[in-house]
Amino acid sequence: MAYTAKHIKEMHEHAKRKDAQELFNEIRKWLNPHNASVNHKSARDIFVEGTGSWFRTDERFLKWLREPGTLRISGGPGFGKTVLFSTTVEGVREHTGPRGSSCGFAYFYFDGRESGSTLQKFETLLRSFLAQLCFNQPEIPDAMKRLYDVDGKDHPEPTVSQLRTTLGEVVKGFDDVYILIDALDECDSQAGLLDWMNSLQSTTPGLHLFATSRPERIIEEFMSNSRHVHISLSSELLDGDITTYIDQHVEASNDLKSLMKEEMKKKLRVKGDGM
Fold this sequence. Notes:
InterPro entries: NPHP3-like_N, P-loop_NTPase
CATH superfamily of the largest domain: P-loop containing nucleotide triphosphate hydrolases
Radius of gyration: 22 Å
Low-confidence stretches: 9-17
Strand order of the largest sheet: 2-3-4-1-5
Distance between the termini: 78 Å
Largest sheet: 5 strands, parallel
Oligomer: single chain
Number of domains: 2
Order of helices and strands: HHHHEHEHHHEHEHEHH
Structural class: alpha/beta
CATH topology of the largest domain: Rossmann fold
Mean pLDDT: 85
Shape: elongated
Number of strands: 5
Number of helices: 12
Keywords: Repeat
Pfam family, one: NPHP3_N
CATH architecture of the largest domain: 3-Layer(aba) Sandwich
């Protein structure tokens, strides 16, 4: 009899896990999130070993890892913001991994190279963040189940407002949550994105928010009214990365490498002054 009772219990638990997995698959298919790891791989493929190490050891970054707050990096085109962002993703992944489900982590790369691309959409970011934060948990958060309307039949497409509200509820379920966004300037709804970021900052005590962008006026003006740490990239700050890049990609004399280094720094200064 004891064996039978144990066997029945195991069957119930197996059925429960199967139902949970089926629900997980249903909601994920319905949400249809973008896979941010595809963009991350592209950035890591052009990463040069040794570059970005200055940032990983920068006290401003280390403090942001330890304490909730907002950290932003700005720089003109060609300053390597996306590759540096990918290095930050790797650093945060290492930091949050051992903490388990009490710590949330999500990242997104905006990409405006193709006009009208879904990677310019604020909604794409929201869907991706919900997937990253909800589907890496032992159980799907109740807020996500309500959005999907588990007990309903139709499961209509959610509005941007509903996605935003649900994400706001989900992030509060973590002791700490790390949200990373690359290229704010490439979002086609900057006002909506910046407003959401401001709301998230004011309603999420454990939020660690990191963002990169070009120094565009609307972003600079908005961020000037919010509490955050700002790092502006410059040719001097990237001096070590330039040297590492040239050393690994160019076979030349030390004199020629020195000339190339100065030329690259000059181009970065021109780009920065032109913004």
